Each structure stands twice: as C-alpha cells, then as structure tokens.
User: Fold this.
Amino acid sequence: MTHDEGPQFENALIDRLGRVHTNLRLSVTDRCNIRCFYCMPAENVEYRPHEELLHYEEIVRFTRVATTVGINKLRITGGEPLVRRDLHTLIAELAKLPGIEDLALTTNGMLLGEQAELLKAAGLKRLNISLDTLREETFQRIARRPGVQQVLDGILEAQRVGFQQIRLNALAIAGLTEQDVVPLAEFSRSHGFELRFIEFMPLSAEDVWDSERVLTGKTLRRLLEEAFGPLVPAKRNDPHQPAVDYQFADGQGKIGLINPVSEPFCGNCNRLRLTAEGQIRNCLFATREWDARAILRGEADDDELRKLLRDCVAAKQPAHGIGADDFEKPQRAMYQIGG
Ligand code: SAM
Ligand code: SF4
Assistant:
C-alpha cells in the first residue's frame, strides 16, 4: 500500500502493517509564549531543564542518520519552535542535509514578524501557522494571552518575505469556534492561504477534552457549505496527508478537514516524532518512547540510532484507538510531544 514512494531504501523504516516511514517531526522545545487551553496548563508549567533538550548538533546528527533509512520530509515543531534561540541556524543545517525534500515549520505565529525573513533565508520551505480565530476575545479565551493582531501581522510578513503555500491550521472546538469557521475561510481565501481545520484531540495537559467539545469535520463541512455552497473534493496529491481537501465551488481557494477523532487515518500514517529531549515516538498517542538522547550522548555509533529507529517503528500500533474502551491517554500533553 505504501511501498511505492521515494527512493527505495534497503533498510527503510517499514512497520508490521507495511507503512513506510518517511516523515519526521522534530520538536525543538517544550516552551511556549502562549498557553492554549487544549495543550498547556494555565500556569506553573513544568518545563524540561535546558540541559535535557537536544543541542542543535544532536538534532542534526539524528536527522542525518534518519535520512539514511528513508526519512525525506521534516517538520519543526514544539512547544513554540520560534522561542528556541537562533532557530534559523538549525534550519540552515537541516536544509543542507542530502535527501531532505521538504522542510516545514509549525508555529503559533507570535514571533513570525521578527523571524520570517531569517527563516526564509535559512532555507525553510513551508510554514503552517496555527490560527483558530480572528477575534481577540476568543483568541484570549484559547491562548490565555493577548495577540491575535500580532499573529496576523506575522502571517502577512511571512507572505511578504516570499513564503508560498502558507497554510493556516485552525483547531475547531465545539461551543467556542463555530462562529470563526466562515470568517477564517474568507480570510484565507482572500489572501491565498490554504486553511485546515483539525479536530480537538485528547492531548491537553489539563483534563479539558471531552468528545462533546470535538467540532467534527462533518459539522465543519456543513457550516462551510451553508456559507459557500458545495465543497468539491480535491485531488489527493499525497496519500499520507491526514487532511481531506476540498475546493470551494467558485474555484477560489482550498480547504482541508483533518478528522483524527471522527475518521482516524492511522492506516496511512508515515510519521515519526522526536521530542525536544530526544525521545523517539511512533505515534502522538504512544505510551512508550525510544531514547535517542542516550545514544547521541553516549559512545554508540550511528548504527545504534538506526536500530533504535527500526525498533520504534516495529512496535507501532495499528491505530490510536481514541474512543475505544481501553484507550489510554498518553502521559504527555501536546506541547511536550511536539504537535
Ligand atoms: N506552538 C506551535 C503551534 O501552536 O503551531 C507548534 C506546536 S503546537 C503543539 C502544533 C499544533 O498542535 C497546533 O496547530 C495546535 O493547534 C495543535 N494542538 C495542540 N493541542 C491540540 C489538541 N489537544 N488537539 C488537536 N490539536 C492540538
Ligand atoms: Fe503553545 Fe502551540 Fe501548545 Fe498553543 S498549541 S500552547 S501555541 S505549543
């Protein structure tokens, strides 16, 4: 099913279901400059001590080794990646690695105004910016900090310095962001941004998730179609992408719905994650991690890292099981894993 892509690696990261892993998400920090309620605690956040976080050289070494077993797509995330000092220097190193075909970043946009130009110059190819609302009041209810205008300014600055294919990610919360769906779509269409809505997942630090608060893709589609007319399913370029994409009936703009809760897409998953302190995870919802930092800081050679990657992939579960009776919420919240 998924054997048909990219350069063929003898030692590719293929799991028991035949899923070929080519996509790596690198978290560079667990710190953040806002406090979204669906992710972080409101206060007294227990961040990892700095010395536990991987240094940039360690991240680059890990990634270089990962490219030798088929990883070709990278996304930098966190926490908020732009709060990590001189992130552009890491991006410049990653951009140089042979075999990397895509290098993207997910950010809340608060610091984009000051960093967009540096990031572009460093070789970053694509940007995903999280934006759940255009209303300051709702922004503050979500982020527990002010800042919607700062984010909007950052998005426009990113466009000004030449980022193309800017994508906005909106987390949809029932009872809170229904009113934002149509304005976000209008804003995105008019500026040429792609918009993706994502369902709320049980990954919050505080116990705030409830299936009643999931604004499902089905409801979102209805809200959008009421405003814009029928959504037309778009051609799928990448079978591994979690979003189902649609075009607006008038042909202006594209919209994606990511429905991990109501329509899980685990069967096509090709992702691995490295947490900021160097633990490999085979799923957002994994309850086990593989310790790459111990290898990176010890005497072992790159073969040990390759073996660790393979072990981690071999143990991947078929699906996350949200909604199943025996579903176990992971110990860590989204900001600690890397979203
Ligand atoms: N700080 C950056 C940001 O917000 O874009 C990058 C890290 S953040 C953890 C990555 C993405 O995870 C964001 O788009 C955010 O909306 C999403 N996210 C956080 N908590 C979530 C949850 N409980 N369910 C679904 N998505 C979540
Ligand atoms: Fe920070 Fe991103 Fe989590 Fe919001 S979702 S608290 S911006 S890490």
